[in-house]
Structure formats: structure tokens, C-alpha cells
Amino acid sequence: MKREILINANPRETRVAIIEDDQLVELLVDRPEARRMVGDIYLGRVEAVLPGIQAAFVDIGTEKSAFLHASDLVFPEDESEDEHDDDADDDDESEHGGGSRRRHAKAPPIQDVLKRGQDLIVQVSKEPISTKGPRVTAQVSLAGRFLVYMPFAERVGVSRKIGDREERKRLRAQVEAVLPKDAGGVIVRTVGEDVTKDTLERELTTLIGQWKRIKRKTHFVRAPALVHRETSLTRGLMRDVFSTKVEQVTVDSKQVYNEILEYLKGIAPELVDRIKLYEEQTPLFDQANIEQELRDLFKRRCDLPSGGYLIIEPTEALVSVDVNSGRYTGKKDPEKTILKTNLEAAREVARQARLRDLGGIIVCDFIDMETKANRDKVLQELRMHLGRDRARTKAFAVSDLGLIEMTRQRVRQSHLQSMTEPCPTCHGTGRVFTAETIARRIERSIKRVGLEGRKDPLLVRIHPDVAMYVLENEKDFLKKLEKATGIALELRDDPLLKPDEFKLVVKSAGRDVTGQYAVA
User: Fold this and answer.
1) Whole-prediction pTM
2) Pair 224, 131 in one domain
């Protein structure tokens, strides 16, 4: 698989596009005013302990207190479960370390471990999303290029993406040999394959030293305080994603280019020649033909190669994806036609999930298939392409309703949430009342005025589109209302109003009385 990284940087924004087989699959955006928090370590202060949900709220200095669940506290590991765990879970290419999600023996109640006012070292595992504050964990992890160091763990694991059993054994033995006693736990990352013992020892020493500095810093600051900031987007990308599997990294900023070169000389000098500075007049993303695709990022409809299409609808609880055959009708066999569309859709669902940075529960409604073999093929295709995702994903078997439910790790807001805001007219529903509905609302509101016995002449201000509807379809609208209520009315269009907004104004006093009478 051909993989390439493009970095477009300026002082106000850094955009990173990851391209696989000439197709855009991932977009990362970093802005100074919306700095990434995942991986940052804080000395926090426990604000409240809630036994009913086995969680606590921790003040880390952010607008909203951070949420800490009991499962993210530090407890002794369950040796019986982890002793022979060859497939240690490694968030191998995520922005901050990973192997911190561990299983435990019976954890004591959170109220027995934490008390209000207590200081606690925590690490951000999920950024604030919507109305929720950040999520934190006390199971701190520090990511290096080849290793993830976990000071509170007790075992050595190897990324499950390293499949060779002998290599896994060798790496585990090498790390165990250089890991000081009672120093914590380690996970070997995928890029650590074939790395020498000296390299692993050097990085482990660096990570342990970094943790000691963080611990020392906590003695000289008062909670809440930031004690360690995760590395920048571009550096984190070089550490986590850039390897021999990436053919080229193209950067259009001389400053960022020099920063990357300097960083790589320290961690992977053999990859320096793969960094290219882009100096052409045409903007980098325009040259790569991906700017248009980014503009279409939030469209509901996403076309498939054969003529089918997806409809992607994010909601509060989940993201729904509907697959349609569209204009693709195949030749003779309808089952083959459906299978081809569904296979294309499975590939595109996996790509769009990464590209839009969708998270949480995703429900895919594929076109109904008659045979189980075909359903399994589609599920297999989806899982294979999800395997390329840096975020943790899981796709479940096809349900009785023909749906495939999947989950994708969510550590921050999706691009839709971070780069857009609700429409001030429809407030995020995507719908506004029709002109006819507005006419009926005006009618009901004016009748309410009449019921109170008011006889002051009223000025009715409406959007031009509604005014046009009334003039063309209900010419006697005002006459009927005047006769029914005994109130003199004047209709006036106002282009400054929203399409489904209207105002009732008492002409003599110029007083807006809409709020009193426009209930529905």
C-alpha cells in the first residue's frame, strides 16, 4: 500500500492529510486557539466523588471538570488474566501512548480510594465533546517512538500488529532484560519490530527520566496545574505514523520542515531523506486535488464508484449510514449487483469514518442480502479496511435487521463538530418551517391578540419568501383576519428576518409583541 503524508502549515492552522493508494483517508487539523489535549498530564484536584456511578470529577483547570471513572484508577493488575497475554492492547499509532486500558481484579469502591480535595496525577484520554468535559485516566502512559512506558503497570506487552511469534518473544525478552525492577510496564509498538536491544534501552531510559521529571514537577506546583504537555501534532505524527511504510512527507512550510528534520535526526535519521519541502506557487492541497474533497467533507451524500451512494447522518447518540444502489442496476443477477454495491460501501464507510473522524456508535444499513456468505463477505471487507485505522474500531456481525453495528474510538470532537456550528435559523435540525406553516402561525398569533380585546393596528413583518407565498396563494389572507379579529393589519416583507421568523409590531407605539402571542 502506497502511503503519503501532506502537511499544510501556517501560523493560524496546521492541516495534515494522510493519503493511501492515492486516496485521502485522514485529515488532522490543529489550531492555536483549539489546542489538542489528549496525552497532556495534569496535577488535578478531586472536586466530587460520586459512588452512585463509581466516578469522580477532577478539577484540572479547564472550563468543565474532568470525568474520571473508577476503571481508570490505578489498582493492582489481575495477574491471572494478564500473565499469558500475548496480545497486549496497544493504541499503537494513536496520538498519545496507549496500553493504559487494563483489566483489573475486583476494584475497591471509588469512595474508598478518592476523597474530595485530594491531589491526583491524571492524563487526558478524551477531549471535551459537546456539553461534556474532558475524560481523564490515572493510568498514565508516555509514548516514545518504539515503546509506550506505563509507570503504574506491571507487565511487558507487544503490539498485536506484530504477528511473528518469534519476533514477539524476542522483543519481550529484550525489554524485560533492560526494564529496571518495579519501574513499571512497557508495550513495544509496531515500529519497534526488528529494533535492537540498545535502541530499546536508550528510549526506555529517556521515558523513565521523563516520568521522573513529571513527578518532581508535581511537588512544586499547586493543583490544578499542567505538568506535561503532549508533543505537537507534526512531531506526534512523525513519532506515531512516519515509518518506512510511508513513502514521502511533503511540507509547504520552511519552519515546520526544519522542525521535522531536527526531530527526525534524533529519533529516525534514516528517514530524513523522505521529507520534501514544497515550494511551488500552487497551494499544496490544490496540487494534490484534495481541497475539493475537503470542501465536500460534511455533505450527507457520498457517491460510490459504480453509481451507488451513502447517506451519512450524525446524531447525538450515534452516526447512521444508509447504503443505496442509486443508478447502479447491474446486469442480470440482482444478488451480485447488491453484493458489489455493499462491498464498495464497506470500503467507503471505513474511509469516511477516518476522514470525518466519526466516533462512538456507527450503524450501517447495507442493502439486504439473501445469502449468509455474501453478508460475511461485506463484514470481512469492512473489518479489513477498518484494520488500517489508527483509532480502535470494532465491527459486529450483521444483525437480524440486516444492520452492521460498529464502534470507533472517540478522543475528540469530529470535524463536523469542531469546524462547523449550528445554523442560526434551523438550530442544527437542517429544516425550517414552510411558508404555509408560517402563515398559519401568524394567523393563530393575531387571533390571540383579538381574544384579549386589543384593537391597535398591527404591522406584520415577514420574510420575502413568505410574503410572496401569501400574495400568490392567499390573496385574501389579511382581509379574513381583519374581519375575524377587528384589527387593522399591514403586511411588510423584511429580508433581515430568518426564513421562518415573523414579527408583530403595534404600529402606534412601535412595540414588538411577538413574544406574547407567537406560541406555535
Assistant:
1) 0.82
2) yes
